[in-house]
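pasting for ref. prot 1 ->
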Amino acid sequence: MPADAAGKAARGKDYVPADYTWTTQSKNSSESMPCGGHDVGMNVWVENGDVMIYVARSGMFDENNTLLKAGRLRLRLTPNPFNGADAGFSQTLKLDDGAVYIKGKDTEIRLWADVETSAVFAEISSKTKTDATLSYESWRYKDRPVTKAECQQCSYKWNLPKDCTTYQDSIRAKGNTLVFWHKNREQTVFDFTVNKENLDGIKNNLYNPIGGLRFGGELVAPGFTFCGTTDGTYASTDFRAWNFKAEDIKKSTITLNLYDGDKAPKIPTAKESKRRSAAWWHAYWQRSYIIPADRNDNTDNPTSKWQGILRNYELFRYMLGCNAYGEWPSKFNGGLFTFDPVYVDPKTPFTPDYRKWGGGTMTAQNQRLVYWPMLKSGDTDMMASQFDTYLRLLPTAVARTKHYWGHGGASFTEQIENFGLPNPAEYGKHKPGDDYGMERNAWLEYQWDTSLEFCSMILQAHFYTGMDITKYEPLIVQCLQFFDEHYQYLAKQRGVKALDGEGKLILYPSSGCETYKMAYNPSSVVAALRTVTEQFEAYKAAKGIQDTSAYALDSTFISRIPDMPLRTIEGDTCIAPAIVWARIQNVETPQLYPVFPWRIYGMGRPGLNIARNTYLKDPHALKMRTHIGWKQDNIWAACLGLTDDAARLNLEKFADGPYRFPAFWDPGYDWAPDCNRGGAAMIGLQEMLLQETPDGQLLLFQAWPREWNVKFRLHATGGRIVNAEIKDGNIKVETEKTK
């Protein structure tokens, strides 16, 4: 019997996630519901009887590196079936088939995105004949100057040129069809960045994904006819609407086909897309789940706060699945589901394209939290967009390293553009004679280690599922090689010896995240180098790689990694942030990174008390503790078996957000909906339930309150799927193999 069939037989019937339903209309776009698939995200809501949809697609970056929305759709039926006390209105996100259903009097609209192409479908069904108006609404019907207040939406940030403009789209409508596209100029923020960062000499060797990029879509509405344009305002933004009318229709299926390039690709019929998309989503939910042990239906009715966080876990995992196969990873600062910014912050009355911290800019410390939970949820196929992004940027990272410092390895910065260079504003101001490779930025200087987390994710994806990661081997090697060569290079700039008296690297100046600056051997960097090197050695051994000549990394590198810095607090040994540091710049707690993500300390591992002492006694860790945004205290508490703290912090982390959809969280340190908060919350919940020792022994419910009756299906290393339940303190567990 195949592994998936055996697993199904062991579990009984397939898992069906709970529907999520509203029975009243929404006030505005902040009260929208997510819907999507493949690489498309939609915000769906019904306002004053109008069905409203924002559509976004991964990779729609303009000249300024703003991540543009495709536009807004508005559908109005006459007479309106959604208004009135007798309408019986409902809006349901049916997770099992990944679609939103809007129902009213004698009418249903089904919305979904195809899971294999970038196509959106809206299926209208009415028992009686109805008139309808479909509008494509665009705020990019004209050139729009980007104001200084809006600068965070693009990569220029506070280096905004005086003539910075979001250029208008080309929009054409005829009959039942509308086409729109945006064609980037050849000169973009990429060119500005290259020049500012003194890289013109190697410009032709650098990756440029936005120069000349063309993207757009084709809207087809059978039974409708274009009838002209009108102007209006929504929220704080003026727009132009291209309107289509239909009379006496009962059925119509509207399609929106999004694409790059000059020609719309072929898309499936609505019937085929509905079938295969529903099948994909159903299979998606069979991969993993965390649900109350006594749940016996598919209605959304959590009866306690802890059951509510399980619902929010599922809703956020749905949001991640909407960009399962995008060329570009899901953005930490809103993903594909941002809405009118004035509803996030009244001080930002900007267009729907606005988000704080940029569209093409990736803050790696935040971004990583979106992808770590995919290992245990069994979604390693969805991690490829993040892995491949780093792989595309590798030649640029190697070229800039060689250009600036003359040695090997790949330097990936913390705030990095989708073309692989530091954000030009965060890069800082340089003068002749400065080291142009260093960011002159109080938060970001000397921070290069986050790329190692993605290297570890790649290796663990292999350990979990057997994923073929051969193409990523150069990425892992070059990231490690950079630290080996660069810190020997820096040591030789200061003195005669490249290593310290024990033959170890001198990691100075370095950085403990953005917090402990001008640090000497920060524990987060030491742990990163040791863990990734050990994981890579284990990978090579398992793969039977004997000849290491193909790897530029010296086989003795691991012996040069410094020891973990420790210190004593109130008589107890703790992990130190570093041997020494000059200042504290931010509110991260890198001294607990050796717990997660690096797993040197934790349950079933040596030195557990050292890590617990750090969590419980380090004055900075205590002062900085919170559940907000990208904070990881909930994860560390779970990894250390501190049940009370893990329960409290995860309840706070996964509590309903302030907007109508529970998994749309407030901006935190970033933007709404806060996706790195959702990722950190997922990790914390998973760690409460399932951990592993270094030799792969499973540790169940290490930080789970015994009175919370729960069952889960999660993934572990070695291709294992763990099905477990705790009910009234009694534990049941079954393990399957996926290969």
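and prot 2 ->
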Amino acid sequence: MGSAEARMPRIFGAAIAHAHGGFFYLASVTFILCLMLGGGTRGGFLSDTVLQFLSLPLLVTALWRLCDLPKSQDRRCVLWLVGAVLFLPLLQLVPLPPAIWSALPGRAAAVEAFGLAGHDLGWMPISLSPAGTWLALLGLVPPLAVFLGTLLLTYPERRLLSLVFLAAAFFSAVLGLLQLAQGPSSALRFFAFTNVADPVGFFANRNHFAALLYSGVVFAVAWALDAAGRIQQSRKARRPTTEGLVLLIAAATVLTVLICVQLMTRSRAGLGLTVFAIAGASALFFARPKAGAWLTPSRLVLSVVLAAGALSSQVVFHGIIARFAADPVEDGRLRYARTTIEAAWANLPFGTGVGSFVPVYAGVEQPADLIANVFVNHAHNDLLEFWLEGGVLSAALVAAWAGWLAFKLLTVWNPRVAWGQEDIDGSLARAAILLLLLLAAHSVVDYPLRTSAVMSVMAMACAFLVEAPEENSARRLRSRDRPLERGDGGTTRRSPQALGRPAAAAAGPVMPRPPNIVWPDSTEEARPRQRPERSPPLDRDFS
């Protein structure tokens, strides 16, 4: 094992050497399952149910390990924010007496419907759609498991997880190419209602697939930057190595494929945000001057964009022009936003309940706003939909998250603040900031965060902005998970060092050292000295 890890690149060998406890593999597999099964646009799909069930082992294990992890101020703050997010739908499911429930804003129509039906009002929750609120609450299980799992990973393991994410995004992009090659009737399209003329990967909607692609672009640029730095360091040290070159080729290949498939999705939001993703990720070069002058942002961006454009020019440009030539008002987003705002004002301050958008919107939609053959399942603006469903509490949570993100932006992008153990750790944290900003901007015109897959990517990015646990704490958690083996194949009790307690405290009081004795400080001096050879005994005659 040791020789194999020594031959690996330093950045991979360190992560694999610290992942023997199995928790990293559990977190990685769960994250991959989120990207593969979480592409549905609404709750209730079979794939979502299976994903929530498969996420439980990671969630339970992470909660159990989190109890023994020291709570820093940074970690405690983000855990309180996550707890508040979970508390909102639970609060909306608490039954209220009829007198209180009927007095809530926006309940007059429901009270009148009960009266016309001849039913008495019983104890009712705040949510106008309790089933939808339960589905929304269960939908938080996969991203919560990914967030807590990533939160407990060390910096080397987080680097490896980011590579797992890039590999999954690359595989999803290749799947999208196969879908496009096989046409609208491709068996590789896993949802009945989907964009049959465009690549969608594991998603049902091309816009959400586009969110995965530009997320991968940001992380691929971060790794390309790290590869350039490794090549530059090897040149200065005059020790040629292939590690940086392999990383650079792999990152450039992934980056080219992701941009190429992004052009083929013909998603207007995805294309626009990809441009900002490339421009923002290029700022990582200026945040890390050790990348080397030979690989500048302009050279990398120009080469990748030219390669992607040359590969996809015959397929996508006429479709892109047609997409941007269409009137954006015709798709009804402005109508959805106006109706959502009116409903949100009518149901302040408590909202209508998380997951209740469809029945609430159908009850307030005006005939003049109807669009033929169009079913409105979301507001196409997550901020407005959060406001409608959660009211004042939802707006407060969004404001708290925005404040936390602004604080992290000032911290991570501060050149005088060292983040992580290696330069790549700081680059990945800055890339996570850019990714969260892009998802927030995308949420203004669409609903990418309503899918478990994109929400899990957001959860991973948020966890990257929290300091990783110390190596000693993570090692204690791993050692506690498995018994200690004896040489004869049995098990034995752990030493105090393995349990995180000082050996002297477990063995009893320590006797003080005798005075006037110089104790050796190094291992060289601590070695036992060789006894001098004795001279042979003298022959004496005692007779």
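The mean pLDDT is 77.
The first helix runs from residue 2 to 7.
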